[in-house]
Amino acid sequence: METIQSNGYNIYFEDSLTQLVKFIEQGKYSRSFVLTDENTSVHCLPLLQQYLGEDGNYDLIEINAGEESKNIDFCVGVWKMLIDFGADRKALMINLGGGVITDLGGFVASTYKRGIDFVQIPTTLLSQVDASVGGKTGVDLDSIKNIIGTFTQPKAVFMAAEFFKTLPDRQILSGLAEMLKHGLICDAAYWDKLKTSDLSLPSLELVHRSVEIKNEVVTEDPHEHGIRKALNFGHTIGHAVETYSMLHDSDPLTHGEAIAVGMVCEAWLSNKKAGLSDAELAEIVEVFGKLYPKHKIADDSYPALFTLMQKDKKNQGNKINCTLLTRIGQFSIDNICTEDELCDSLRYYTTL
Amino acid sequence: METIQSNGYNIYFEDSLTQLVKFIEQGKYSRSFVLTDENTSVHCLPLLQQYLGEDGNYDLIEINAGEESKNIDFCVGVWKMLIDFGADRKALMINLGGGVITDLGGFVASTYKRGIDFVQIPTTLLSQVDASVGGKTGVDLDSIKNIIGTFTQPKAVFMAAEFFKTLPDRQILSGLAEMLKHGLICDAAYWDKLKTSDLSLPSLELVHRSVEIKNEVVTEDPHEHGIRKALNFGHTIGHAVETYSMLHDSDPLTHGEAIAVGMVCEAWLSNKKAGLSDAELAEIVEVFGKLYPKHKIADDSYPALFTLMQKDKKNQGNKINCTLLTRIGQFSIDNICTEDELCDSLRYYTTL
Ligand SMILES: NC(=O)c1ccc[n+]([C@@H]2O[C@H](COP(=O)([O-])OP(=O)(O)OC[C@H]3O[C@@H](n4cnc5c(N)ncnc54)[C@H](O)[C@@H]3O)[C@@H](O)[C@H]2O)c1
Ligand SMILES: NC(=O)c1ccc[n+]([C@@H]2O[C@H](COP(=O)([O-])OP(=O)(O)OC[C@H]3O[C@@H](n4cnc5c(N)ncnc54)[C@H](O)[C@@H]3O)[C@@H](O)[C@H]2O)c1
Ligand SMILES: [Zn+2]
Ligand SMILES: [Zn+2]
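ok -> structure tokens follow
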């Protein structure tokens, strides 16, 4: 599998941790710091240690797992550890974890002494196929996601499918939704391949194709003006469903599970408004139906869901801008949808 | 006075607040936010309001005055106000104040929603001649200065000498030290001009020349590898004196007052080691002697001062790297000084 060149850095697939060792040697860093969370310390660090050695070659900084850690207080904690360890401008930060670790670690590194080098080792499917490309770092504030952050590219990204072995099934499903999205918006052949693959433990080849697609989209439109909106497919409704679930459900949906709901609804809208055929809609519904458990959307939640869609930063005022499919493998941006249409699509999902 | 072009942005001198109004109009910003501290709200905001209008055209965010505010807690406060005001990605932040406001405001803006536009209106002499150029933003953590920050250029800088009228004398003297430094390292004619000017209220022409000099140095060496070290003249000893004073004096030295002490000491070292003539040393001593009150340096503080010099990020290990003068208007970097030499220079200052 070829190394992918993103915005000034490489994303390694083949033998990637050997590449990491080379990268560190060539970088002449004063010191390496590995950032983990409680889970990746247990499940992912041992593999890394086989390459870096167990002692003396780096300092370890561990934070609590989960989105609740993705805030400024934890940044201050990590900054202070870097200070205590005497990290200077030639230090390297190695972020080993899911999107929380790579987003927070990237932000901390991009602001420590006005920026030190960092590399990403994403250990969840979602962070490999999504967070690894695009240069977004960030943390939450006042429960607003990613409101504080920078655009800073890592110096390299290292992928390994070994990490998936310890991932809970729902984490696999979460990343898978973004992969299915990549197929739906840009590459019908990839979508077909996903349909027929064993998706309980996705292969690195599949990850590679997803990263390629996201990389192409992001490189063409680094500042989210045009075609990057393609990546929003499923997200207008999905984000609202995700936030609503977080506020109301005892066991909330993951990001990908919510996006899966959103993609079914927005596929229906695509069929109504953008030319997606009945057969293609049926196919999309079938694929998601097999993979994802049905989510209950109560009738009386529609107004709240619509309000959430309006608040989404990608929309202005009353009009809700959706990215839809003209057919499988092809998207169309800036489709204005009304409240009625959006609620009808939720209703459609409910009847399935 | 000509507008100075720095790294992708303009620094306006002539009619600068009229230029600001134009800048805002052309920028099509969704909203402007003015950041002030208690003092600049009183002394500087009224002038700005004459141009922006008093009501409705911007939201005001005020923080406490002083270096104690330059930390992450105050950043969180400002970020939350931006959120509460509904600031979006097309918002503009206008930092109206001294270096604390321009450094903190720049950092907050460069990280809010991964970066919104900001402009600087520096209101102290120090912030006009120094902080306005170079793209450094930042805040302190654990009393380590500027340890968290970014390199982000403002979209424009607007200078006005009117602000100096309300500045305390010691704040004038603080900025003046950097101006004298600019003359000493790069421009003998400017140094001569400063010597014969009324420096109780420096003219915008003088500020302009200082900004030009700093801009040339920084543009040639954006990442502090070579000639940017010229700007360190007086700072090796000056920083140590500043920190020591902060820790021990009831009324600590300002940055510039400490740098003035440092420049006298380092002029003596320049005479001993780098070719500065006896006459030039005498001239430098006389100019600083007239402008700055004598600072007491106790004999038993020398070891502590030397330790502080060693900790300075610009040095490695035992060797202390100084920028010295070969003559007035010409510098030489990377002069290695021993503990004895440095202490002798402090002793020299004390005997004056
Ligand atoms: N920067 C971007 O462009 C981008 C893109 C998408 C998502 N994100 C961010 O990513 C975050 C979500 O990503 P995520 O789902 O990876 O979150 P996460 O980092 O919270 O990981 C999910 C859970 O899996 C655990 N885990 C990680 N790797 C494991 C492994 N190999 N084995 C067992 N457990 C493991 C983690 O400890 C955590 O409990 C969100 O904060 C989101 O904002 C960022
Ligand atoms: N970014 C850079 O390149 C750079 C360069 C030099 C200094 N700095 C930073 O700048 C800071 C020091 O700058 P400073 O001395 O301007 O600090 P400051 O902002 O604290 O200002 C000094 C005092 O003057 C008050 N003040 C400001 N303008 C006034 C006016 N017009 N009239 C009356 N009072 C006024 C302030 O409220 C404050 O009390 C430090 O934090 C330093 O790290 C940054
Ligand atoms: Zn997503
Ligand atoms: Zn200085």
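The domain at 4-166 of chain A is CATH 3.40.50.1970 (Rossmann fold).
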